[in-house]
Amino acid sequence: MKTAILAVSIALALTGAAAAGEMEDLRSSSFGIDAGPDARSAVSVPVPAGEPVPVLGAMADFFRLLFTPDGGVEIANPVTDAPGVDGELEDEAAGDPAADRVHEPLDEAALETSRGGGLKAVSVQVSQVPQDLMRKAQDYFMANSGRISNKDFMGIIDFSQHSSRPRFYIVGLRDGSVKAIRVAHGKGSDPDHDGFATVFSNTPNSNASSLGFYLTGETYIGKHGKSMRLHGLSSTNSNALSRAIVIHEATYVQEANVKQGRSFGCPAVAASEIANVISSLKGGALIYGGLANSDF
Question: What residue spans of 173-296 are helical by DSSP H?
Fold first, then answer.
């Protein structure tokens, strides 16, 4: 069995390596973020001399996910001091997020803003998006474009950043625009509530955030207001739907330089941003939650 698994993983890795050149060409012709004269350097991350080649990295990731099907990941506490913040928001006191399954359909009239327009958060350059996360999201998008209905926008969340930072990037795939907003992580991911997420889990009732690729699903109004379901596409977040991990508005998230409150694992955003987030990412958009400068 182990021999068969090894053979399959090697074949997958070699196939991916052979397609790398073609993937880069597809990326440059399909994403608005690559359209500018300097865009390729902005989204390409060369492998430094002496570093493991991508094929070996892909094999390592394959085995890591194969033998940790519950998606449990724990990282060391960041050595970087928490950035100066202006305050701390309270956590939500509501109960089990699974109660969100009792809901009303979201009236499209509630999303009058045009798709992607009017975000109150800051606009940033593509080069300010963590480049390794951008590359992983682009590669996944191209390899799975047939199952991704919303080809106008995708989301990237860098959970390695402090919660006071605008770390949820809404990327316009046709025009290269990027909006960055604040987003909460789960209580289980930040047990000491220092603003850094260090534990990630796919296990029910862990109250932790999950890493991996997501596809956006149904929109509705639940106990947390405007919300959008998420389907986990990775072994690290495959229980997202059953865990009721959704994007929703929250009073404990604000577009301000404060340590945000924690969710039960949902990527909750400020009420001021939810309509535009849903408007941009609804209808089967790709979202990638990862850790910059890591294997995840």
Answer: 274-281
Bridge-based pairing state of the strands 104-105 and 122-123:
unpaired
Return d(Cα 161, Cα 131) in angstroms, integer: 14
pLDDT digits (tens, 9 = 90+) for 206-225: 999 999 999 999 999 988 89
Average pLDDT over residues 278-296: 94
| Cβ contact 139:156 at 8 Å | no
Any idea which residue has 């809404």 for tokens?
Answer: 170
* Cα separation, 90 vs 258, whole angstroms: 11
- What's the rounded Cα separation, in Å, for the pair 23 and 137? 12
Query: Which structure tokens are listed for 160?
Result: 């390695």
CB of 21 closer than 8 Å to CB of 27: no
Rounded Cα gap, residues 205 and 247, in angstroms: 17
Quote the crossing angle between the two packed helices 2-18 and 20-30, to the nearest 10°: 50
Each residue's pLDDT tens digit, 124-151 = 888 899 999 999 999 999 999 999 999 9
Taking a C-beta distance cutoff of 8 angstroms, is the pair 160, 292 a contact?
A: yes
Burial class (CB within 10 angstroms; exposed 0-12, middle 13-18, buried 19+) of 67: exposed
73-290 architecture in CATH? Beta Barrel (2.40)
User: What are the DSSP calls for 179-203, one per residue?
Assistant: EEE----BGGG-TT-SS---EE--S
